[in-house]
Amino acid sequence: MKTKLGLLYGGKSAEHKVSLQTAFAVIKALDLEKFEVYPIYITTKGQWIKGTELKKPVENVNELQFSTGKEISPLSLATTLFQAEQDDSPLDVIFPLLHGPNGEDGTVQGLLELLNLPYVGNGVLASAAGMDKVIMKNIFAQAGLAQVKYVAFIRSEWEKAKTEAYQQVETELGYPCFVKPANLGSSVGISKCTNRSELEAAFGEAFQFDRKVIIEEGVIAREVEVAVLGNDEPQCSVPGEIVPKKDFYDYKAKYEDESTDLVIPAEIQEDEFAQIKMMAIKAFKALACSGLVRADFFLTKDGKALINEVNTMPGFTPISMFPLLWKETGLNYPNLIERLVALAIERHAEKQRIKYIV
Q1: Is 332 noted as a catalytic residue in this protein?
Q2: Which CATH class is domain 149-217?
Q3: Which one is catalytic: 38, 191, 309, 347?
Q4: What distances in angstroms separate CA 291 from CA 22, 232, 233, 344, one per listed residue?
Q5: CATH number belonging to domain 137-144+220-350
Q6: What pLDDT band is residue 177 in, cutting at 50, 70 and 90?
Q7: Is 15 a catalytic residue?
Q8: Active site residue: 166, 175, 251, 255, which one?
Q9: Per-residue model confidence (pLDDT) at position 80
């Protein structure tokens, strides 16, 4: 029996285009002998449009942006209303390929929990905490994980006392520093600042994308990442290193050009990898993660690892770190997808053991 797999992608988010690229890559890698694949496109306006079963991989990403189709209610995913053809039965698993707000932040995960549907990836808590960089770093601090210094502001605080906000950044962090929207990924809205004028511009840029921003201390360090896979017993991939040819690993470097070198496996010492691996699994458990995360670290010259962040829905584009790390570890792309689906089913089955009626 084939597994009926629903792919959720697009979304009402600044990372809409990133999600399309992820969906395109996943569809190309899926074994259609094992899966019945149903694309579900969420437009930038929040409409859910169901496509017909994919009988073959799509040729280009534009085919995934349905201008017309069967618009559905999200609630129909768990009912017979989803059935478009007579032989179409309810979906077995949902694979949310959504990045950023309204997809990676626990909102869709909460919907799928209410519908009692198995879904790939992190649950509500991990998704929400992992999306908000301030909450995530607070949890890391509570767990005793070493990280760079940071401060955060909400828009109303900044608007009432801009000069004081800039002075606090300069006093507590200094330059260089990085200003980021708290609830976005893919390097959207991020700026590197080396002086007051750049800092002022960076605040304005970041607040376009979120009502909360985080400012992080700049450090001289290597950027090392590991991929984590599992539920209760997570495992780590080999490490990889990002070597940007620009000041930092921005959106364009990630998705639009080849201005970054990815070194896999990273050339680091065994004790450095052991430290990073331990911290990645500790972060995974501290956020109550499940399925997958990519954990990003700074590695200083003296061999100290500082956790930067975890990404609860890392990209699956051909140049993305997560699948490349697992490929080097011995798990190729199609098998990685199958493993993620199996983990989703495993976690869903475990939740069914919970007693809800006293």
Answers
A1: no
A2: alpha beta
A3: 309
A4: 17, 9, 10, 7
A5: 3.30.470.20
A6: very high
A7: yes
A8: 255
A9: 54
Token pair of 214 as six digits: 């985080």
Which one is catalytic: 9, 11, 13, 15? 15
**Hey, what long-range contacts does 315-318 have (CB within 8 A, 24 or more apart)?**
315/18, 315/21, 315/22, 315/99, 315/186, 315/254, 315/255, 316/22, 316/25, 316/26, 316/97, 317/18, 317/21, 317/22, 317/25, 317/255, 318/25
186 included as an active-site residue: yes
Smallest CA-to-CA distance from 208 within 183, 177, 238 is with 183
Q: pLDDT per residue over 299-339, tens digit each?
A: 999 999 999 999 999 877 767 899 999 999 999 999 999 99
Is 311 a known active-site residue?
Answer: yes
* Structure confidence by residue, pLDDT tens digits, 79-131: 654 554 544 567 899 999 998 888 889 999 999 999 999 999 999 999 999 99
The predicted model scores a pTM of 0.88
6, 121, 291, 315: the catalytic one is 315
Catalytic residue (one of 13, 294, 320, 347):
294
CATH of 3-119, one of 3.40.50.20, 3.90.1150.200, 2.40.180.10, 2.40.50.1020: 3.40.50.20
346 part of the active site: no
How far does Cα 248 stand from its chain's mean position?
19
> 221-278: per-residue pLDDT in tens?
999 999 999 999 999 999 999 998 766 545 454 445 555 789 999 999 999 999 999 9
Q: What is the pLDDT of residue 15?
A: 85
- In the chain, which residue ranges form alpha helices assigned H by DSSP? 16-29, 107-114, 124-131, 133-142, 155-160, 162-172, 196-206, 251-255, 270-286, 321-329, 333-351
Establish whether 92 is a catalytic residue: no
Domain ranges in the chain are 3-119, 137-144+220-350, 149-217
Active site residue 255: yes
- Catalytic residue, chosen from 36, 241, 272, 296, is 296
Q: Which pair of structure tokens corresponds to residue 105?
A: 């932040």
